[in-house]
Amino acid sequence: MTAWELFIPACFALNCAPGPNNMLAFSNGARLGAYRALAGGMGRMPAFAFLIAITVAGLGAILAASATAFLVIKIVGAIYLVYVGIQILMKARALAEMQALDASIAALMRRDFSIAITNPKAIAIFTAFFPQFIVEGAPIWPQLAVMGLAFLVMEVVAVCLYVAGGALLGRFIASNRVFVQLNRLVGAALVFAGGSMALSRH
């Protein structure tokens, strides 16, 4: 198998992991429908594009070498995730009762962007993951650029899958009580992710 044939399934597995952004896309899909949830889920794309760019440029190596820099970014990201999770937990019932028009696409995109951009594990993943598939002897920068572009394309597919799953669930749920529990699950997952990020040594 070529490096590319190994990269595609491994990368797609990372894209489809049930992280904070994907869980938010699933919840939005169930609560607001496919169109708004999909548009909101695109908010992560510029964040990941930026993180990939600075990783390729070498900032990932700097953060990996500087324990202080990585710790600061990790703590900021963890605090934000916990904050968003607590907000969703506190407003679980109100969010479940919201109509589609009550949540603007811009607001959904901003939340998705904020969660993605404050996750330092993305930089760590890109820094540790991409080099594993570099073909020795070939120009490095083009390979990293193509891998970064492939990651973004597969991230769009992952967003579509989570939104579709949430929207499908939403069509068969008539009770707000289920949406309240779903929102609480998402909020708890975000708090857990933030806490885990803060306590992680890597």
From TrEMBL:
One of its GO terms (cellular component) is plasma membrane. Keywords: Cell membrane, Membrane, Transmembrane, Transmembrane helix. It is a multi-pass membrane protein. GO terms for molecular function: amino acid transmembrane transporter activity. The keyword Cell membrane applies. It holds the Pfam family LysE. Coiled coil: none annotated. The chain crosses the membrane at residues 47-65, 71-92, 113-134, 140-170, 182-199. It is found in: Cell membrane. InterPro entries: LeuE-type. It comes from the Bacteria. This is LysE family translocator. It comes from Martelella lutilitoris.
